[in-house]
Amino acid sequence: MATLAELAATHTALGEPAIDHLLRLTASWSLLADLSFSDLLLMAPAVDEDDSFIVLGQIRPNNRSTMLNEDLVGSVHHASHWPRVATAFAEGVRATGETHLDLVDEPVQVWAIPVRFADRVVAVLVRLQGPLHGPSSLYERVYLAIFVRLCDMVSDATFPFREEEVAGPGMPRVGDGIILLQADGRVEFATPNATNALHRLGIYSAVEGHTLVELGQRVRAVERALNFALPTMEEIDRGHDVAILFHCVPVVADGAVTGVIVLLRDVSDLRQLNRVVLHKEAAVREVHHRVKNNLQTISSLLRLQARRSDEAETRTALLEAERRVRSIAVVHEVLSREPGEDVVFDEIVRSLVMLVEDTVLALHPVEIVVNGDLGVLPTDVATPLAVALAELLTNAVEHAFTEFDDENEHVGVVTLNLYRRGGEAVAEIRDNGRGLGDNFSLDVPTSLGLSIVRDLIRAQLHGTITMNSMPYASGGGTFVRVTLPLTPRR
Q1: Distance between CA atoms of 21 and 114, rounded to whole angstroms?
Q2: CB neighbours of 455 closer than 8 A, spacing ≥ 6?
């Protein structure tokens, strides 16, 4: 489904600033829907058809059943079907009346509120309220009165605010608790949920007719809304167990603040959960940090033992083992900074290249070039893949250029290409060295390193690996391709 911005750009004559204004309105209009107990539509004149309006947005209330079972976003309606909308847009005044909707027996009350931006009406906010049975309660009357005041702000282009969204994901809703403050900051009305939230902060006396400061709680967000007509949020803590989120929305008329809507949400459990998660993340980071340190200790012991060995073959084997341990430690080092199920493999690749460059024993100068990346990989893929790539890179820089002497102008280059193809991760290593022997077979590898790579790729990662020499016309050397499935096997 097309977004509001796409619909407005394609089917209306609205410019980008006006579209941004409507985007801010739809980002905050959950407050309007809940206060009015109504479905809301946002409609604007369509350029495709004369005397027609296109529905740019739709929202349903959280505190009453919807009047619209179908999604009307993107639909175009002739003005004769919505005469109040046409009146509100043409005359710039609120138009009210009744209409009939499918699957609804009784007439539905309609409000058409002009949405003004830059001294002109750019759209119409349509309120569709179902029939009210019985006398309205105090809460309904107060909510609807607040809604009317906000509608006036919509028509005056003072709502939504440019500074921030008034409502959205994660922000308090009307059902969480609402307090209405007068222009002097005194409480005019508070819902039971809001009163309970104040009780959590230690305020037990009656709140009507008093300011929050008089009740013993200073909320700077309220002061900012009253003094500067700016919406803002503030979280008030009481010890480590209580946290109440205050979201203050100023009500403005004729350029002056006439009150403040305060939405409250008890976020104590959420903050407690966040603390638990942070503690667990810290513990996981500490585990990875200790594993990395232990691996580095093992690496140091292997390197020390290699230095004390008199046999070249033993020394080489110990140094290769030390490098493999360090390649595993690289993964845990990254995880110690960002713990989780996944890891950014690009950081690991940079560390692997530095590791290979530091440990290469070849005398011929070799340059390692990395192109592309694999993005985020699961840790159970990243660890064995890091070991395999370290082996392949080391094998290339150590063995591909052994036939070139210092007087040869040939420059050794090893290229690592990383990319995703469909649901697979692909790593390609290409060098311009001497290539493979005529009798080379990966199924019968001649070194422990290639045996490790083959088993890691095929058995553990369920991938494929191919190695072959490139023809002289293509620059010669060896080409290795590793392909891994990224979808888990069942």
Answers
A1: 13
A2: none
